[in-house]
Amino acid sequence: MAVILCIANPSDEPTSVGVYWMHKFADYAATKGHQVIFQTTPTLQMLRLALQQYNPALIVANGHGGYKSLRVGDNILIGTAGYDKAIKYKIKQGDENYFTGRIVLLLTCNAGEELVSKLVNSGVIASMGFKKPFIFLSDDKVAPENDASAVPFFECLMQPAIQLADGAAFQQAINMTREAFKKYIQQTKGDRDKADKFLQFDLDNLVALGDPDAKLN
Predict the structure, then answer these.
(1) Could you tell me if 206 and 109 are in contact, meaning their C-beta atoms sit under 8 angstroms apart?
(2) What is the distance between the alpha carbons of residues 217 and 167, in angstroms, rounded to a whole number?
(3) DSSP strand E in 49-163: where?
């Protein structure tokens, strides 16, 4: 069994939906015997403390992404140095070394463009993200647990983490994630809300790099 660090913060409407699904994953992973640490108000200091104290094998982070960064709440928690065109911000110092020897899932927009490869090149075992914005449908008139529009998107988004928690190797988890996307694309094909087109867009922009055989111990 492994230690899993979940990072999410309900700073706005999209991330509030993400927090709900992250809690669902955290509860599920705990039933599989994993020790789950959930950070909802993270800062760099709190992140570093959690990494030192718990030494998680898997980090699952939801927030807002740039090409070089992942922001949770008001803080860039995972990033590589340089000017991030997506967020128009210069990151003075990266923190890739925090994540060496771990699996990192970036459940956010844009981070697959650069950050995923930077992390893997810096010693992260395996990582995934999306090259472009992660598009999903949602109904802001209902609570996240009743938001049927969001289900296909977040079922797919959480699949890498779910499959790893189930004992799958990294590449197996990614393959099953792609199959989940394809299943929901078929189920929603022809819908007026264009769910199938958005799901296809997300699938096309999924990036996964690193050791295909990596597993949670």
Answers:
(1) no
(2) 8
(3) 58-62, 64-65, 69-72, 75-79, 82-84, 89-91, 103-107, 126-130
Find tokens 């792609």 and name the residue. 178
Rounded-to-integer distance, Cα 187 and Cα 185, Å: 5
pLDDT tens-digit profile of 135-150?
Answer: 999 998 999 999 999 9
Three-state DSSP state, 93 = coil
What are 3-49's pLDDT values in tens digits? 999 999 998 988 999 999 999 999 999 999 999 999 988 899 999 99
The radius of gyration of the chain from alpha carbons, rounded to an integer in Å, stands at 16
Q: Look at the pTM and tell me if it is higher than 0.90.
A: yes
d(CA 167, CA 65): 27
Classify domain 3-210 by CATH number: 3.40.50.1460
Let me know: does 102 contact 124? Beta carbons within 8 Å. Answer: yes
Q: How many CB atoms lie within 10 A of CB 159?
A: 21
